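**Fold in tokens:**
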Amino acid sequence: SLCSNQSFKLKNKSTVDFGRITKVQWFLDGVQYGDDDLDPIFDKDYTFSVPKFTSPLTKTIKVKMVVYSGGSCFDEVEKDIILLASPTVNFNQLDSICLNAGTVQLIANETSGLLGSGVFTGKGVSISGLFNPVTAGVGVHNITYTFTATNGCTDRVTQSIEVFPIPDVDAGGDFSILAGGEQQMSATASGIGLTYEWSPAAGLSSTTILNPIAKPDVDTKYTLKVTTDLGCITFDDVFVKVLQNVEAPNTFSPNGDGINDVWNIKYLNTYPNGTVEIFDRNGQKVYSSNKGYNNPFDGNFNKKPLPVGTYYYIINPNSGRKNITGNLTIIR
């Protein structure tokens, strides 16, 4: 049995007692196939193909060979050949994909209803059709879907898929600025035909250039979106810390009523390495913090309440800013 979508070959084994064979003719189901062969030789191959069919499951065709010697002497032989139904695969053209698009499911199927199974082959694709552009890599790749019917006949279609490169993007390292200050971004990007988009727009001199000036009022995480001329996108983030001006109240009342019992310094938490020192009128240090202000001054020294009066503080932000000094009055 032969598959209907495949050509087959027959060999000339004809002989003559004297003289020579002068002509060979072939017939399929009574219809001459091809032209007369006026130069036949022994063991010559002849290739045949018939219209592919998917139904019925088998067809029998009659192949007849007529061999001539001289002008009118001939002999003929006829044989039956069984052809099998062959599958038909549908596998549409594939869209291009960006390198970072993630795994996609390719779709192909056999359209005639013949039973069997299909597999995908090619770089970056699983047998079930899951295509991973990262595994395949940038470039053009040929993907083939092959369906094998239960009768052993196959059909296959190959399509190409192109994986586009993505831009290489670095939004720059996180940085801090003083409230009211500004700093230019230090982003880098490489690729072809790049466009830029920063978000949010608040505090930026521009959202469409690679390195705008940043002047946010509050801590802000900015996202940089970079797009190539082929539509491939990469994102990266940068965090801008805004160091607010420290607001230190000049009084507090550590009397245990739950209100202003500790000296709360607004925005000091934006200086994680900041230190606070407090002195009495005689210059004796009554309080100090180390790298931050996690345990605020509660008006006690050596676990004893300090007397009502005026004290003096030094706040060192340890961020490049000048020390902040002033006086503080304890009220009970």
Q: What stands out?
A: The longest strand covers residues 58-69.
